[in-house]
Amino acid sequence: MEPAINVLIAQFKTFAGKDGSSNTLSKEEFQSLVASQLTTLVKNASDPGVIDQLMSSLDQNNDGELTFLEFWQLIGTVASKHGGLSQ
Amino acid sequence: MEPAINVLIAQFKTFAGKDGSSNTLSKEEFQSLVASQLTTLVKNASDPGVIDQLMSSLDQNNDGELTFLEFWQLIGTVASKHGGLSQ
Asked: In the predicted model, what is the mean pLDDT of residues B70-82?
């Protein structure tokens, strides 16, 4: 599993490093990541309304930036549905 | 990212399917997964005390089985530390 985990960390960092804080995703970075990397898992990944809604549902401290763990939560939720593992 | 996510889902299912409920990890399945798959990310992965402690910290409803999302939380926490992304 570790090679796959390392891929996810590296790709998060690539997108998070594009502007501002290099350890968090701004809305623009999040949109860019979802639209290019999560096209199967997130329906309508290129719809700004979908991105807005996802971003606000994940950004628990509401600062406009997603931490790795906030982002990780999204992947887990969509992956569990995709994999038929949600409760 | 989706290929890496699919690897993690598939490997979770492989371990979860070994006994009992095929969608959750028993303690034995969790131990087997951690000791074989997370040797870098989890220190002392073969120590039963470490496994006991991790399992009880993750098993939020305390039923002795880890769901995918409970397990996902663990990976996110250790990955964020490993990747220098923890707050």
From this structure: 93
- CA–CA distance from A16 to each of A13, A19, A24, B72 (Å)? 5, 7, 5, 21
Q: Give the A-side interface with B, CB within 8 Å.
A: 1-5, 7-9, 11-13, 23, 33, 37-41, 67-69, 72-73, 75-77, 79-80, 82-87
Q: Which CATH superfamily is domain A2-82 in?
A: EF-hand (1.10.238.10)
Note the pLDDT of residue B58.
87
Fold annotation for B2-77 = Recoverin; domain 1 (1.10.238)
Sorted by where each begins, the domain ranges of chain B are 2-77
Percentage of the residues of chain A whose pLDDT score is greater than 70? 99
Task: Tell me the C-alpha to C-alpha distance, in Å, between residue B8 and each of A23, B35, B44.
Answer: 23, 16, 21
Give the count of Cβ contacts less than 8 A between chain A and B: 104
What digits encode the pLDDT tens for the residues B11-41?
999 999 998 899 999 999 999 999 999 999 9
Nearest CA in chain A to B41: A2
Answer whether A85 sits within 8 Å of B13, measured CB to CB: yes
Instruction: Dig out the tokens for A75 from the structure.
Output: 């992947």
The pLDDT of residue B20: 86
Do residue B68 and residue A77 have CB atoms under 8 angstroms apart?
no
